[in-house]
Amino acid sequence: MNAADWFARSLALLKPAARPAPAAPDAPRPLAERLRATLRREPEALTPSALRRLLAQLQGVADPHVSEVEAGRRARQVMAWYAGAGAAERRDLWLLLVDRFAPDAEEVRAARAHYDAALGTPEQGAAEIRLRSAFVSPRTRVLQRFAVDRGGLRFLVDLRAELLPQLKGERWLLPLDAELQALFSTWFDVPFLELRRISWDSPASLIEKLIQYEAVHDIRSWADVKNRLDSDRRCYGFFHPGLPDEPLIFVEVALIDHLAAGIAPLLDEQAAVDDIAKATTAIFYSISNTQAGLRGVSFGDSLIKRVVETLREEFPQLRQFATLSPIPGFRGWLAKNADAMRARLPERLRAELDRALGGESVPAAAERALALDEKSPVRQFLLRSAAQYLGRELDDGRPLDPVARFHLGNGARVERLNWAGDPSPKGLKQSCGLMVNYLYDLRRLDKHRAMTLAGRIPLSSEVERLLL
Fold first, then answer.
1. Domain assignment present for 110
2. What is residue 3's predicted lDDT score, i.e. its pLDDT?
């Protein structure tokens, strides 16, 4: 990260000054006034004395003169209080962390002026060090010392999970969120993570977490999860020593001899087990993050790369690595863009589509997508629209669909669209039942990643032909 990027990121830590003053008569008083007061007012949570006591405890955690062990003990007392606190009381702790443990704004301004004056001189390096030091807030030390305790990392991850839904309406919380995310990006960096295989022989408590956290295709029963952990399957997760036996993210893989076109055969508990000695293809059919508090901390791309390496060592005959992925944003995009897509059709195809619709709208016809035969103009229109959505629609230069954004950003390409790939109610609601294969061509990952970064989505010739 260069100095300019670091400065921009660090400036987020000074946001508390922008926190708006209360607008309504019954809104909480400014924090400074509450700390000086004697009596609590509605709708404030903590009394002034309790607020002062909590501030003193946090200051005790941050005290640079105490050892890490003692700081961890003090942090444990705050965590015990937090566990029994209500939502409004917890919000007061967030308020204290944001307002009372921010970087010294005057020191930051002075350090920035010193840095600007030193640019291009022998003093530039020392000035940069001073500026970096100015941005290291007491809040950083408080959060780091919470992590000293054995349960501290779990506490901080859960705290951020609580915090995230509040950010849109309470932007004064952004500095605390930014600092937590920055710390997590270091603490959960890939070199500190352990890749583990999860199998049917793993502890039941771990398998229960798979059932709990599966986010793509719900696990319906123990028979279902056993099928996903059978001998022709693999499941791998990243683990962190600070969160023992808690997968941070996991991926489910099917080892077969073809590019999978639908999820139903992979989830069929009665299907025969495939002969893995004949497997040529590894299909990544589900990737699930488990910790809401780690949003924005990216290790999914590293997980896939590590799993590919592991599979190639165990199964040298594997030649193809691909996904069978949902298209979660397609149906919503289609509802807004069906008319524009129809207008782009050549006149003959547009006339065929209109006859097939018989006055019905495309979104309405999509409700019965599974009943459309292969030659149906509506079915062809839906496939063309999906190709447009995945292959051309961008948001700020990045693929519009979140799953596409992840895989294409990792160097995959859009390989094939699969009609009725997911006939479940969820699949129909998200994407008219369509699924997509993203292919990880190991020889072209860098090329495809560069194309995506340049706003040109890598597509197979089969998908290219569907574009209008």
1. no
2. 52
d(CA 21, CA 12): 19
Q: DSSP string covering 27-79, please?
A: SPPPHHHHHH-SS--TT-SS-HHHHHHHHHHHHHHH-TTS-HHHHHHHHHHHH
Average pLDDT over residues 431-451: 96
Active site residue 114: no
Q: Please report, for residues 62, 69, 188, the alpha-carbon distance to residue 298 in angstroms, rounded to integers and kept in the order given.
A: 29, 30, 9
Q: Indicate the residue type of 69.
A: V
Looking at residues 112-127, what average pLDDT do you find? 95
The average pLDDT across 266-288 equals: 95
**Per-residue pLDDT, 23:** 44
Buried b (16+ CB within 10 A) or exposed e, 268-294: eeeeeebebeebebbbbbbbbbbbebb
For residues 141 and 138, what is the distance between their CA atoms, to the nearest angstrom? 5
Catalytic residue among 10, 137, 385, 407: 407
Please state whether 455 falls in left (phi above 0), alpha (psi between -120 and 50) or beta.
Answer: left
Supply φ then ψ for residue 288, to 5 degrees. -130, 125
48 shares its domain with 23 = yes
Write the CATH number for 263: 3.40.630.180
Mean pLDDT of 37-58: 95
The CATH number of the domain holding residue 178 is 1.20.140.90
Shared domain check, 434 and 416: yes
Rounded CA separation 124/14 (Å): 23
Q: Is residue 107 part of a domain?
A: no
Q: What is the CATH number of the domain that holds 385?
A: 3.40.630.150
Q: Does some domain include residue 52? A: yes
Among the candidates 323, 356, 373, a domain finishes at: 323
The H-or-E segment that residue 391 falls in is helix 377-391
Q: Are residues 293 and 208 in the same domain?
A: yes
In sequence order, what are the beta bridge partners of 197? 236
Q: Cβ neighbours of residue 13 under 8 Å, at least 6 residues apart? A: 102, 103, 135, 137, 139, 175, 178, 179
Instruction: Say which amino acid occupies 188.
Output: F
Catalytic residue, chosen from 325, 385, 431, 448, is: 325
201 burial type by CB count under 10 A (0-12 exposed, 13-18 middle, 19+ buried): exposed
The answer to the question of residue 127 being in a domain is no
Q: Is 159 helix (H, G, I), strand (E, B) or coil?
A: helix
pTM: 0.86
Query: In terms of domains, do 18 and 38 share one?
Result: yes
Asked if 448 is an active-site residue, the reply is no
Each residue of 14-47: pLDDT tens digit? Answer: 544 444 444 444 566 999 999 999 999 999 999 9
Containing structural domain, residue 406: 330-464
Mean pLDDT within 93-122 = 95
Q: Can you tell me the mean pLDDT for 278-292?
A: 96
- Both 173 and 197 in one domain: the answer is no
pLDDT tens track for 72-107: 999 999 999 999 999 999 999 999 999 999 999 999
